């Protein structure tokens, strides 16, 4: 018998990546379709997605390639980048990521596929890691309450400006910024200030507060320590003067410098901000990096962003959780002063672990080494007749070379070193952890100084430090045992493993969070992120050195524009909240350019995400709320009434599509037309884009602008609560108003656009290869199929659960979009079992809970995504059905309302070894019916249910003394 020949062309194709990304195979899809009542994915699409918005043409994207092919393309792009040794500084520095942290945190799915720790019982590992980060920031800045990270240093400074305005004594007045602050920080602060009516005054504060500012009133002051020029100044007198005027003072500080310098808190500052990038996080062409903010205790409850605190569980044991967990914009909406709804958790974990691994002595040694190189650099320049501008500095030297600055920078570049061209007469040179003797020699040669590496030891012997005596740090920091215990790699490896084991992430099982799209973050997509050709580039390196990066960025912009139907995309916003702000600022600028500055009303449905309202106010708009109908759709009659009432001042309608309730609204095109007829613009929030890719394009069915969440639809992982990327996509008339950047004009539209919303020109560029790879791997057909399966999965789950729980909203034919809301309120009313009880009980079944009480209190929003296979979907459905049976046992009186598996969930292993006073068995507690397959790999929560109210009343936000644990 002759063996059947398979053509080489077929063998060369391999398995399409889409088959790896999409969980259910063809056979399972057929089973799911039959359960929902359809014969094919196209039939389901035709029934679920309104015909008025469906796209009729295939996306114009390159044909999908296999994993090896895409990696080869990325290698070719990476090879087009030239990585020189960066001595540019400006808040971005070379650093050495300890390999144990690189491999076991940054490249470990147990850390990068986790979600925001809103379910703290199954997030104890990363919460402890964030508490370490907060302790590092609080100790080094000398201010007792630090947050769990912000998006970058520049936006942290802008948040500090808003906080100063909110809590300060001076109403009105100016925000005073020292001229030696980082230029990108000044630019972002100005972008954020102008729409809200804040006057920013930039001045040299070396001689104190200018008379002009004092006369106008000063509500806040921002200084840089050390300054962008490298200068280290004693700000005590300035801070005292500012306090005398009633101002709140913010110090933007360098964490590494603070291991040697007096802390901002001791100088008298009220707020400290900065970046933790140089604590082991690669530059990545600008991000992502964990910004930070710490404050005096007085302002602890006004701190923007997330705050990890220490509470206690049901057994009285210490347990970590997000303190003040309900985010500010959800409580205060249009009255919020911040739209921040995310953090940079993965990067904060890395920075915190860098401090854990090195400890205070190791960090100080790195700082002293860095400073010595800077001091020797300056001494060698002076010996060669080059003037050094400042006598006191930490790591950055500004040299004066009249008329020769460009020549010096070019010469250094030829020698493999990038310096900073400050102006025609000055060159900035920054040293860091990676600086060596060879770099000093190259820099001296570029200046025309006869430097010689073999003479450095002699130069060292006669060169004093350049840190001012009165600013040398005298207090201890990082005294907690965690910063002294893990010096060997073995100990560190086990610590990281122990923390990861305390968490639940996508590497364990399904995270069915509505509105958050927790799907596969493929290893092939993640791999290029840590390649040095991408990771080691400074964001302000000359563009000719970033040719491959720029090509990747342009291709991703073009492909995202094609997917969404828009004309232009900016990748600068480094979170969805910043994308919202950038989009609304573009709308505002468009109306002003058209001579209609009075268009300031933003219509927002009452069901919208809270960041929408907060972003609108930050963009200088007035929020008018539109009612939501009983079916979850925007109330069309109320919308038309609001349009008519505000026709002359209507700026924009913000609407999420599919709706926040998980439904394809039928009249979205008519809604867009009504807004346009009144002269307004339409902003479609891209949070639910995973239901549209390949099926419908917002830019073609009436929207003018959207932000996209690359950390949802386009596979950048959530990282335990960040990083995120929130590009803004616009139609052509808004394109001139996209964000620009003063240090890199090529990152913005011709003419400059609006100001930057992020510190780096292309935001979190370091993780853009992930989304580029995803689109390249999937192609047009794969992307469309992924969306169809996501919609199928949501409808399958809804149909399976509908006999047991009401599905709150549905469109025509009883269909939902890519997520569904199940209503627990009738059960709570009948039995007393709360939504919290159901969420915590799911932990015993081996699941992360769906989104709780959003957008409707007392409900669960479930989004299964396209990546979960049928076995996992069924496991989840069976767990929910089993929980319903348990609720019935409570309702019937078989189990008491206050002592049952739901009220006591989750159950820990430690409970099994003690007395068992409950009316249900240990077996029912930890191996409930429907969860038998967990026996081989059960997830055991490390703590019992956490008392959130106790943690909020007793705010502890840094590593507690060991004695507290003993108590």
CATH class identity of the domain at 119-355:
Alpha Beta
Helicity, in percent? 25-40%
Question: What is the strand tally?
Answer: 25
Q: What is the CA–CA distance across the termini?
A: 79 Å
Main pleated sheet? 7 strands, mixed
Catalytic activity: N(6)-[(R)-lipoyl]-L-lysyl-[glycine-cleavage complex H protein] + glycine + H(+) = N(6)-[(R)-S(8)-aminomethyldihydrolipoyl]-L-lysyl-[glycine-cleavage complex H protein] + CO2
InterPro entries: GcvP, GDC-P_C, GDC-P_N, GDC_P, PyrdxlP-dep_Trfase, PyrdxlP-dep_Trfase_major, PyrdxlP-dep_Trfase_small
Keywords: Oxidoreductase, Pyridoxal phosphate
Subunit structure: The glycine cleavage system is composed of four proteins: P, T, L and H.
